Amino acid sequence: MKFLLPFVTVASLLFVNNVEARWKPVPGMTWNYVLGAKVDITIEKAQVLDVDYQTDPKLIQQYHNYGKRVVCYFSGGTIEKSRDDYKYYTAVDGLVRNTYGDWPDEKWLDFRKEGIKPLIINRMKKAISSKCDAIEVDNLDGYQISDVKDNWSKPLTKEDTIKFAQWLGNTAHSLGISIGLKNIPGLISSVGPYFDFAINESCIRYKNECAMYRNFIKSGKPVFGITYGSFSGQLDTMCRELNGVGMSMIVKKNQSLTQASTIFDGKTHCGSYFNYGYSTSSSSSGKTIKKVTSRKATTKKASKKVVSTKKSSKTKKVIVVIKKVKKVKN
Ligand SMILES: *[C@@H]1O[C@H](CO)[C@@H](O)[C@H](O)[C@H]1NC(C)=O
Ligand SMILES: *[C@@H]1O[C@H](CO)[C@@H](O)[C@H](O)[C@H]1NC(C)=O
Ligand SMILES: *[C@@H]1O[C@H](CO)[C@@H](O)[C@H](O)[C@H]1NC(C)=O
Predict the structure, then answer these.
(1) Which of 206, 242, 236, 205 is CA-nearest to residue 224?
(2) In whole angstroms, what is the distance from residue 279 CA to residue 269 CA?
(3) Whole-angstrom Cα distance, residue 285 to residue 47?
(4) In this predicted structure, which of 15-19, 115-119, 134-138, 181-185 has the lowest mean pLDDT?
(5) pTM here?
(6) Is 41 in the pocket of ligand 3 (CB under 6 A)?
(7) Is the CB of 90 under 6 A from ligand 1?
(8) Do the beta carbons of residue 310 and residue 226 sit within 8 Å?
(9) What gap in Å lies between CA 249 and CA 228, rounded to an integer?
(10) Is the pLDDT score of 134 beyond 60?
(11) What is the pLDDT averaged over residues 120-141?
């Protein structure tokens, strides 16, 4: 067996020779969710930054220069009317459907239409050319949302969603980029193996729900969680709901996804009894970054505008920032 190993390694390298090994995040890594504002990278403590997929590639390069990994956000289950590829979506018969009630800038997509595939692949390729390490695909939960389930004559089903999510995972991997799962924690047993990490908002609000991710995390894949509101006011709940689960949790005052963020660290904030839920020895985990960081977001104006804020108490969705895409002149 020992002799075989080098050959196997060479063979597998040859096999994947045109796809670089993708980045695989590990449990314990710290993160920040900054779709809503500019990042002052010089003060950023998190190891992983989640930004919009149309973020200027020069900024993404700067984040890399500071040793950060970059996850790039886009929506796969809806489309914002202001995206520059909107016209290609509407050109596909039956793809773009009704308005998202909570997010009037966005329309639901019938992702069962084959015509969506090249459009999503283009977005993945854009993320890859911008040097994103991973993508995060939002709004796969239409089958659970009234706009879709009570309104379409043939609504999206759970099975449709599983099929699409699996296609997303396979496609991202075939292109050589990592992909994160958002919105459908209930389907994690069917689609978890196709994803490299997950993103969750507000699971601590529901008893024993963060723990739904435990097996996924045990399999070596991180879950980047966010809690909105006061840090101290929710500390007891976090200590209870996150003990032994292994989630990488941050807290922000509100849903404007600015840079200001506090990294939750179980042993520091709850006590030595706290069980991280993942092995802290085997990985380059976030153990070195323990300090509670609270900082002001930069006030510099980015060439972006926040187009909508979520008002409902249900925090399924985050602020989406639409960037005025600068025309590149050569
Ligand atoms: C379906 O959704 C559209 C757009 O949100 C809305 O105008 C329409 O009233 C809805 N129809 C039903 C039957 O709910
Ligand atoms: C986070 O987890 C909760 C509880 O399971 C769930 O209701 C919510 O939809 C999840 N959020 C995301 C963004 O996946
Ligand atoms: C949200 O929180 C950030 C920083 O924590 C603050 O700068 C911003 O003004 C807040 N926004 C609202 C709408 O309260």
Answers:
(1) 242
(2) 19
(3) 9
(4) 15-19
(5) 0.82
(6) no
(7) no
(8) no
(9) 11
(10) yes
(11) 98
CA–CA gap between residue 284 and residue 220 (Å, rounded):
12
Name 284's bridge partners.
Answer: none
Q: What is the mean pLDDT of the chain?
A: 85
SS3 225: strand
What whole-number distance in Å separates Cα of residue 231 and Cα of residue 247? 16
313/123 Cα distance (integer angstroms): 31
* Residue from 203, 241, 310 whose mutation best tests the ligand 2 pocket (most atoms within 8 A of CB): 203
Residue recorded with tokens 């980015």? 302
What pLDDT, on the 0 to 100 scale, is given for residue 106? 98
Question: Is there an atom of ligand 2 within 6 Å of 265 CB?
Answer: no
Q: Is 185 in the pocket of ligand 2 (CB under 6 A)?
A: yes
Residues whose CB is less than 8 angstroms from the CB of residue 283 and which lie 6 or more positions away in sequence, other chains included? 26, 27, 28
Q: Cα(67)–Cα(91) distance, rounded to whole angstroms?
A: 40
Nearest to 165 by CA among 198, 133, 132: 198
pLDDT given at position 281: 60
**109 CA distance to ligand 1 middle (Å):** 14
